[in-house]
Amino acid sequence: MDSALIPKGVKRAPLWQFTLFIGIVGIVLLWGVYAMVLCWLKGLNQTNMNDAYGFALWIWADLAVIALGGGAFFSGFLKYIIGKDELKNIINYAVLIGFICYSSALLILAIDIGQPLRGWFIFWHANVHSMLTEVAFCLSCYFAVLTIEYIPLILENRQIDKVPFFHNLGHNMHHVMAVFAATGAFLSFFHQGSLGGVTGVLFGRPFGFREGVLIWPTTFFLFTWSAAAVGPCFTLLVTKITEKVTGKKLVKDNVVELLAKISGWMLATYIIAKIIDTWYWAAVTAPESGFSMMDFYTNNPVYGIWILVLEIVIGGVVPALILITDAGRKNKTALITATVLAVIGICVNRWVMVLQVLAVPVLPFESWFMYFPSWQEIATTILPVAYGIILIGLSHRYLPIFPQERELNPIEES
Amino acid sequence: MFPFSFEWIWDMSHMVFHGGLWYALTIIGLGMTFCIIKSVVDTMQGKGAHHDEEHH
Question: Which has the closest alpha carbon to A29: A277, A385, A401, A399?
């Protein structure tokens, strides 16, 4: 029924099967939308945020999806600026994943500010002394860049492409894409960094506070570095999941291995820098504030030293070692394991830098502040996942996302 | 915020923050304007009217 919309030369699941899949995920999406509407109509009392937790589950999800969406800017940087042309076979998917991640981040912020109708205040009444203002500026502009990068893909739909103006528009946008990609890389560098900087400059929060260069704490650079390292890992992971779900090979191994290799070396260098940063913080920065390192990992029901091991060793050192070795990249199980661990590592990093920072007592008479999100927070955090699955499903079905798909999965004409 | 807004102050913070914002928006705006105008011109010249949908 929808065969006229499906790209030529590729096979797709029957429409009923696709509709059923979208319908099931759509129920989850509606659950999230219901919680979102509750937050907008009734206010932030629908959450478990309080005086101790002004940042809660949403902001963790926000930082996590922004880091995971880093594959778009870094792949674009590698292809258009560095000239790694092989990545043209995966860049569309990186852009789509980036678009989903950044639109999700903006959606989360729209819920988080409580009054989305006042969202424009941050542009018009900007507090130019806040790193979050820079984040808001760069995030919005970069989302515009990602939209511009996604539009040519939509215009390549078989039916849309038949309209001469849209065909020409898609063609012309491809021609100037390097300019947009360079702008995107510039914007990403600053907003990824500033998200890290937000925690790093909190001198009243010794768990997060870091020293650095001029106005930039080390977390500024570590956040950008980690997003550039793990973003491509997430792109590879979602690609592998898509291949599993569709039962087809969509990207050639040499492309996957190239991106995995670059990601692996980025991750390896990042994790060395992170270990040095953590050691300096534990040995110098925290003691200067009157804390020992173990003060941050004891006397509470959740945060033990295990979380540091999970973040740095299991989610950092192990995947980096797998990805920088040729044998690790060529072994499918090891490659997927590495990408999963790297994604877990970055999510744990964002968790501790957002939530553990707030949990740690900073005054002698305080005890640990524990927090559990309300169902509305959980539902609105799952909402972007459902939205992402639906958009990936629709894009994969109707747009030529994977340039190598036809070659890798030839259809025998009957 | 623009320099003619009452909140504007001519200091480094305002210039850097808003300079960066306008710089990015200008590139995005000019880039898209160029693409749209060129596409209109191309379409009027008949380009892309009978292209093979197999080749982009």
Answer: A385
DSSP reduced 3-state for A160: helix
Q: Which residues of A374-385 are buried (b: 16+ CB within 10 A; e: fewer)?
A: bebbbbbbbbbb
Query: What residues of chain A lie within 8 A of the CB of B21, using their CB?
Result: 123, 137, 141
DSSP assignment of A42-111:
H-GGGS---SS-SS-HHHHHHHHHHHHTHHHHHHHIIIIII--GGGHHHHHHHHHHHHHHHHHHHHHHHH
Partner-chain residue, chosen from B1, B13, B25, that has the shortest CB–CB distance to A124 = B1
Architecture of domain A49-198+211-361: Up-down Bundle (1.20)
Question: Tokens representing A80?
Answer: 């258009």
Phi and psi for A213 in degrees, rounded to 5? -110, 125
The upper half-sphere exposure of residue A138, i.e. CA atoms within 13 Å in the direction of its Cβ, equals 23
Asked whether A36 and A194 are in contact (CB, 8 A), the reply is no
Q: Do A172 and B39 touch (CB under 8 A)?
A: yes
How distant is the Cα of B11 from the closest Cα of chain A, in angstroms? 10
Element (H, E) at A213: strand A212-213
Q: How many angstroms separate the Cα of B11 from the Cα of each of A187, A329, B14? A: 22, 51, 6
- pLDDT, one tens digit per residue, over A250-298 is 999 999 999 999 999 999 999 999 999 999 999 999 999 899 999 999 8
Tally of CB atoms within 10 A around A45: 12
| In chain A, where the domains are located | 49-198+211-361
Would the CB atoms of B24 and A138 count as touching at under 8 Å? yes
Picking from A167, A177, A191 by the largest number of B CB atoms within 10 A of its own CB, the best residue to mutate is A167
pLDDT confidence of residue B52: 54
Substitution target from B4, B5, B35 for chain A, most A beta carbons within 10 A: B35
Residue in chain A lying closest to B38 (CA): A172
3-state helix, strand, coil in chain B (%, to 5): 60, 0, 40
Q: Do A179 and B31 touch (CB under 8 A)?
A: yes
Residues of B in contact with A8 (CB under 8 A): 53-54
CB contact under 8 A, B34 and A176: yes
List all residues 6 or more positions away from A40 whose beta carbon is below 8 Å from its beta carbon.
Answer: A111, A116
Q: Which of A119-133, A200-214, A376-390, B38-52 has the highest mean pLDDT?
A: A376-390
What is the spatial distance between Cα A41 and Cα A43, in angstroms, rounded to a whole number? 6
